[in-house]
Fold each of these.
Amino acid sequence: MSLDCVEREMECVAHWFTGWSPLQKQDFMKDLLDKLIPNNVDSLFDSMNSLGVSDKPPSIYKCQLKLFGDWFSEWTDAERNTFVLKLQVLDPGFVAKFNEEASRLSNGLGSS
């Protein structure tokens, strides 16, 4: 994938991020942690819950998360790190909390 394309994807997600509510950012953090630390047990239960069938279309936010997941899975580790640095500029508190949670989960201290 070209660097230009990845850069545009990151800018798009960063733009969405600036418009998300605190609750949506919290959900996004869980999603990001699940992608980076696949052994997170909570992700299994969340995945099972997301299989529910609904008669209404997904929200714009859910569509944004889906696109992010598709893009993120194609990014290299360096590109993923660059993305987190972009988030750091936008919301240092979010990234600080993210780093705390990532450290806690990767050290095997369990889930909340």
Note: Helices lie at 3-19, 22-36, 41-49, 60-74, 77-90, 92-106.
Amino acid sequence: MITYNSASARPSLMEFVSAAKLWRVWLHMGLQDVKSRFRSSALGPAWILINLGAVIGAVGLIYGRLFHQPMNEFLPFLTLGLVIWGFISSSLVEGSMAFVVAEGYIKQFPFPKIIYLYRAMVPYTVVFSVGLFVFFVSMALYRRPIGWGALWAVPGFMLFLIINFFHVVIVAHIGVRFRDLPHLLGSLIQIAFYLTPVIFTVTMLKDRGLAFVYMFNPLYYLIEIVRYPLLNSEAPPAEVSYVALSYCVVAGVAATYVVKKMSQRIVYVL
């Protein structure tokens, strides 16, 4: 039973605002999603830290030696790359099911549909926070200093968060109509992973005449807007900021178009 008119009405900017004000609802739902993944587990969400640490340690040792990279530089670089990439891939792949997994809530509760998009962002942010902890641990182990310039990562992350929310808005609406979308995006993201400087550095590409691999890859700039300040304690290069801002504008326009075209039909398609 649909009890709220906005469940079938076209969302406006005010609905995004009103949904944000219900932060206790979507934050609780998002945290419950994290807990439910580890239900009946003795360690619970601590497995996020264990799994992430194990992957980064194993991959870092292998690829660090394979690429002949100094571990004090490569391991923090790899840690941030994998953590940020995980956020991007989750917003695209898992985000495409945001409305589908919330079907029961949408049809029975008088909440704006937008809260289920905010809800989807919570687990990604939790995992990202755990990843940052692993990064700071790796920096401390290798005694690498972090200066005040690292605070440039704060506005960078805010921009990164907005962009990924636009990702969720777009794929969540499309995913209601096309249920194969998560599988398609999963395959594309896997390909993109090997074309983005996550486990290999920009210097490696430049030395081999492959600079175009990252120069024309927008995902590189989304990663670098957060990674560069944390690694170098200074503002990211101007071109990184400009491309990330331009991408945000394009993603915002695309999200607005998708909402206007598809939002009214969500409840009926579900």
Note: The first helix runs from residue 13 to 21.
